Amino acid sequence: MKLGFRVWLWLSIVVLSIIIIFGIPPKFFSGGVIISAIDSDSKLYEEGIRQDMELLQVNNFIINSVEDYVSAINSLSTESSRVDILTDDGEFIGLYSLNDFNSLVIKKVPMTRLKTGLDLQGGIRVLVGSTNESLNFEQITDLIGVSEERLNVYGLTDVNFFTIRQINGDYLMGVEIAGSTPEDVEELVASQGEFEAKIGEEVVFIGGERDITHIGKSGADAMIQECGELEDGTQTCRFVFVISLSGAAAQRHADITSSLSVNHTPQGSYLEQPIDFYVDGKIIESLNIGADLKGNPATRIQISGSGEGASTKEAIANSKDEMKKLQAILSTGSIPYQLEIKKVDRVSPTLGEGFVKQILLAGLLAIIAVSIIIFVRYRKLKISALLIFVSLSEVIIILGMAGLIGWNLNLPAIAGIIAAIGTGIDSQIIILDESRIKDESLKEQIKKALFIIGTAFATSFVALIPLTGVLSFMNITAAGAGLLRGFAITTIIGLLVGILITRPAFAEIIKRLK
Amino acid sequence: MKFEGWYDSNYKKLLLIPGILLALCIIYLSLFNIQNDSLFNKDISLTGGTTYTLLTEKPLEDLNNFLSSQSLNFESKALQNNLGEQTALKITVGPEEGDALKIVLEEFLGEKLTEDNSSVEKTTTSLSEEFYNQLIIAILLAFFWMAGVVFLIFYKGAKIKTVVVVLNILLGFFLGNLFFKTSVIIYSVGFVLLAGALVAIYIKNSLPSFAVMLSAFADIVMTLAVVNLLGMRISTAGIIAFLMLIGYSVDTDILLTTRVTKKRNVNVNKELKGSFKTGTTMTLTSLVAVLVAFILVKNYETILNEIFTILIIGLLFDLFNTWITNASLIKWYAESKK
Question: What are phi and psi for residue B6, nearest 5 degrees?
């Protein structure tokens, strides 16, 4: 059988899609592991190791699986010693201990280049707006800038910001962080972040670049200083980090402290008033000021605070989190309006495990069930097989397109694929049946079939438009629906693929089979 | 040919069945709306509130007892995997009690809630109201534009087509700028005027277009009534299901309309029969595919469950509405044109 142009076009797009999905060479042949998360205050991070790097060797031990990685790491000593780490981004050699590798999270190299959404791989999505003010687009863009900077402290790479327009014209900021995320990160994003250091009622310095020129993030400049037990048995750990003040802020410190008197206590000599740190009006720490700082334009200031937990380990982790939050707030300064979390969805990464496989299985079985019905109806194996093949090819092309435009496949998007495939099967049945009407020429039959399919396409297409967000000029913004945009986009892609590529090809094959 | 004779003399009477059913559903939904101030039971994404999903093996009963003793107003549910083993517990509370729930759940589990042991979904009341309004607007517009496209394709006559296009665009601006924003009376009157004008044009000029619109409308209304009777809650994702339903419903209706109206000297019963064969195959394949997929993903308790359930109910009604409501109307129309 000679294949026509339409069939060739269809087959080449299928091949192209497969290449887009799996890459060249296909990733599932290579094996290997990648770094899915890394603590930004860890030693390895400092050396330049980052998220998404592929880990090839540790001390010449070739790593092809997570098990390989675990056994390679377990051969390391608890004392620091020389370790050679080979990644796809270069070689890193340094003195590391087994503990340093606790800051890494490793996973298998994903089989495809497709990205899944939060509801499948876990992560967090937060929608933030103002409590009492309406925020315009520029204000939200500023807010995104500040939030980006704050999240940078965590070294997260897979962060996606977006804006949502509400019916009344107000904007919301949306943040999506995929995969494993720091605890309470939503509070950081929604925090107004007004930091003030006060002595008595006088402000010495505030958060932001004007007063703070540098924030220590690692080594001796930022660390967990000590841990202890509270009366009720809770563990608590204290963090300290150093910041550098601008000249003006240091001078303010000198001016305010010069008028204070010194108290002499058995523990040491301190100024009569402490320095208090406030975040959003709440006091978080009060520190005594050493007598030697009186009237001194100090540019290096130690900031401290604490975190609690049931165990020391938990207390250390919480203390680190608190430190990062404070660093984030100090680095960006405050936002001039009160913020509120309007919606937060946090999906545990473990919840989505196995679900993707189950969806693939469901899709495959659904297509098989459909082809059985088709076989019962038409009694032709060839046609059933063709139908399965065409439907699968549509899934592949839609996934390929999603990969091409970097679209995240979330559950609404998967519903969209199902919708498109369902419509595709409907269309193929129409073509099959039209081509069996006896008193019409084949050309007429196909023409009528394509007319029906075209009309059906046009109606579904306009029905999806309100969800895509392109109607904002009509003030139809579909903010809630914005979260459903994945559905609209994949369905539209699927319908377009169907009407432009697979349907003409299917009609041509049916023509040639006759 | 016994059936054909019976059908020829009774097809108009057949319309009574969907007519009565549709009227009952509309009455039921109106009462429901008065009682609940909403067309359906909303889940927390549309009412505001907090849902926690705990990855725990502790039995649901323990959790319920524990929560009851804390005077929380909650709903809870156990999730299972395909082997029937419990994988998680799902607890939902209203918008005021989210923070309290967190503390109580941490006490119940004896550990902090982290991303390793739990998922959380939280929506404020103000935002959820906004979502609800927008979803209603999106569905209304989708429905009217779909009907508009059917009219544009099946009707010949440039003038009225232009009027329909302009009215539909006006409807879009109206829904976006005035719906839910002015007083109920003003926007209801405005909507009834605009929608009424469109429907009147369809009935007067292109009965087949109206028939397509009517069966899609009946599909939605009847499905919604059953969804409410089942006590199901609908989330933002529910809109997906209703849009898919509009799409599938229109597919079969267009097939039927094209077969019967696009040819001269057509044997109506023969075309109806042919369309029925094609159309039921289309709907049955969709139904079976959705059913198979639903069974396989059901235990994961995702939004797909909601989408699939609505689709299954909707497709069953679509069989009914296409082959009784729409078929009778089309036959009536075709016979009267002879």
Answer: -60, -45
